[in-house]
Target: Elongation factor Ts
Amino acid sequence: MAVTAKLVKELRDKTSVGMMDAKKALVEAEGDIEKAIDLLREKGMAKAAKKGDRVAAEGMTYVATDGNKGAVIELNSETDFVAGNAEFNDLLLAVTNAIVTYEPKDVEEALQLKIDESGQTVNDKIINVSQITGEKITLRRFAVVNKTDDQTFGAYSHMAGSISALVVLDGGNEQTARDVAMHVAAISPKYVSDDQVPADVVAKEKEVQMASEDLNGKPDNIKEKMVQGRIKKFLADITLLDQPFVKNGDQTVAEFVAANNGKVVSFVRYQVGDGIEKQTTDLAEEVAKQLGK
Model:
C-alpha cells in the first residue's frame, strides 16, 4: 500500500509524532496504520500514541533572545499541573533555545532539530517528557524575530508564562522595550498602528456600527459622522501605538516610546490556548465508561 500524505497526517493525528517518524513507520508497516502505531509503540512512543486524540490546551509560552535573534514559543500540555513541573519547564527552555539558535521555518522543521550532543531531536525530547508526565505535549507554534544592531528587543512573560511578548524598537533602550512588551502582554493589541489594520476589518466594523439601534432615524450625514468617530475609537483600541500606556494612562504608547528616543517596529504576543477548543469532561460519565456501564 502506498504511503500517502493523507496517511502520514492520519498517523500523526493519532500519535502526535513528527512527520518523518510517521512516514518511516508507515513505510516499514507497508501503509498499515495500526501496524505503524504498534511499531511506534515498540520504539518507545507508546504513551504518546495513546494520547493522540486528547487535547493539549494548557501549557506555557516562553520568550528568549540571543544577540539579534529572538523567539516566542507555545508548548502545550493537557493540564496546568504538568505545565508547572520541572521536566516540562526544562523542555520549554531547551526547545526555545534550539529555535533561537537554528531558526527553523516551521514546526515540522523545529521538531527535527538536534537538541543535544547525543543527537536527540526536539520531537524525541517531547515524547520523552510526555512519557514521564503521562500527558500529551505538543509544540504548537513559534515565531522567530530578527533585529538589527540599531534596534532593541523587549521580552516579557506574564503569569508564569501564560502570556509572552517580544517587541522590537528602532532605537530606545532595553527598559523601554521591556515596558512596551509588558503593555502588549497585558492589553493585547492586534496591530502596531492603524495603517496595518486590514481594510476588511475596518469595513466590517463600520457595517456593525451603521446598524446600531441608537442611530436609527438619524440623518445619513449625522450617522456617518458618528460612525467615523466610533471607527477611530475602535482603531485606537486595537492598535498598540494609540493605546494609553499601561504604566501611565496620560500618554499613549507612541508618546512613551518617542520620549525614550524609540519607535515601535513590531511585536509578537502568544497566550496559552488561544483558539484551541478545550475538552470538557463529565466526571460521572467518565467513571461510568470505565466501569462498563
Strands lie at 58-66, 69-77, 138-146, 151-158, 163-171, 244-245, 248-252, 262-271. The mean pLDDT is 87.
